[in-house]
Amino acid sequence: MAQLRIDYNGHPKHELDELLKKYSARIINMTEVLDDSELYAETFQDILDIMKWKFEDEKIRKRTCSIKFDSDPKDIVEIQLRHLLTNMILWYGFVRADAAEIVDKSFIIDFTDPSIDMGKITNYIDDKILPNIADVDLQTKNEIVDEIIHNMTAISRAFSPLMGLGISVYSIIQAAKRNPRIEQIMHEKLPDGLQPNEIEERLSNTTDELIELFKKDQDNDLKPLFASGNNLSKGQFKEIAVAIGLKADVNGNTIPHLIKCNILVDGISTPSAYYLDGESGRKALILSKTRMGEPGAFSKKATTNTTSVTLRHDYIKCHSVRPVWYHIDSDQFLKLLNGRYYYEDHLDENGQPIEHILNYKKDKWMIGKDIPFRSPCTCASHAGICYACYGMLYEVNKDLASAGAYAATKETEPLGQAVLSSKHLQMTHSSTIQFDDDFDKVFELSSNEITAKDDPEFDEDLYLVLGEVKAEETEDTIDYFCDNFDVVSAQNKVIFHVAEQNHSRLYLSKQLSDIYVKLKDKSKPISMNVFDDDSAVIFNVEIKNKELTQPIRNINRLLNTVDKCGCTTLDEVCQQFARNKIDAGIKYDLVHDEMMIRGLLRKKSNEMEEPDWTANGDPNDYKILRLNDALFKNPSPVVSLSYGYLRKQLRSPEFYKKTAPSHLDPLFVSKLSETITDDID
I need a labelling partner for 225 at 20 to 30 A (CA). Which of 81, 367, 376, 663 fits? Predict the structure, then answer.
């Protein structure tokens, strides 16, 4: 079946009155429409043209028609023409698959529901369309989904100018008048004394509530933008309508001072808020200079190194005996392994491993368990990764010139976006400040300030013995900090030890710093009686911030450093990569991670050779090279040279022993035909 030819932007072919008469005087049998591709295209174009004529007219825009299905011809459904049009876009799959009889009333999406977003559209494709056209080959399924996405995008582009989508303050004010809760949220302020992570959580929850209120409101500019799912940044909307919140300093740590105002109601109304918000501008300039090039460079190296990792073009299963073990610690983790081959924990009657394909919806029992999987990392095929090690995604990607290059591109692109986002929207994700239970017997924590309790659980005088104190010099001051301290009695007996559980620094307050500097014996206990004012700050706790740029640092460290974030085995590296990408919000299958890691694997005994994962090989004869080293020691001289450091490589004796072919070789022949063996039509 050829691609549908729908004219989204041209002038309607028929007059409006003619079209309205055609679709108001009869009941449309949708089964017949979906059973005939020409009738489907004609009906779709007619309804589209009605909208073209007078979409701005509410009577036309909300005009209804009657439809029925052969499954229950007496059940007549009234539906707006525009909503029928959108449903027909989704039903295209059944036209293409000759499965019109499947569609009935239950397949209608109610687009008047304000909760409809792209997530629900995606679920509809996954749950209603694809399972009901299971007999269709995967190539056709891909084309169907692509056509649905194309038509969704095309109709949006065609009518967005007519809808005049935009944002006006007036519209927001009117929504606030209709709903007092909207106005309350936009004017309410957070109380003092909350920990940074508590502030972030409350602001996030409040922003979610406000977004839902706007989505449910009758008529405001924000409703369609929020309903679509991805058009407005939640973080930016929080700063505009709720509160600017917390900012990070140039070192990435959270500044423990809340900017309570928002842009819409208050503006940046205080000198401190102006200064703290300006920190974002300073940090953005620093990021532009120091970090913006990292993702591109990392992506280039990863893609170059992984391009040679390809898929077999047949259905021959390799003889690998080495699985990759994953600890599946969440539902999200499980979803990223959907369609992968895994082993049971016992052999069959012939002593052979028992394999199954993971089904995300049926295999929830795996959460919390360690499961061995076939993996591209340990595929024993020398002609490309076999279908079993790659998983069911093989059917989708089997025709790719390089599934490895595709994997590297897909995995590194979101990391670049994360760095870009960190420049434009500098949100904080502060770690929780945690101490053990003994801490609460003597101290109080307000925001990041440690003070003494009014009524400690000890009657005797108490003293502080500081751990190793270090100095941090700035341009104007010297700040002192330690990682821990002891609370001791007058007899110098340790009562309990204090350390922040996330290893945050404990900065000495101005008063404590002055006392410490004057001490000749730095190990001498300091009486807590000197803090006679209950509000006197003793320590300021460092607030660690999980920046948006942290995932790329973690993944870069995992793949391109010797220590590999402390991982020593292949299983640990794969597990850590999976956790990093989940933290980064990357939702691509874990098989792509493993394709990248595959490009780093070499024998310990010979770093120019790939490990032997068959029963004849040594399962421990492998090492995971740094990305830079994998490129430098690539068996192909052309790939190595594409990495750079030409002088170093050309001076290396090992370079002249490299003879492996590569995907780049055709670029260095005088005649391309010399490298082509397949007939060309």
Answer: 81
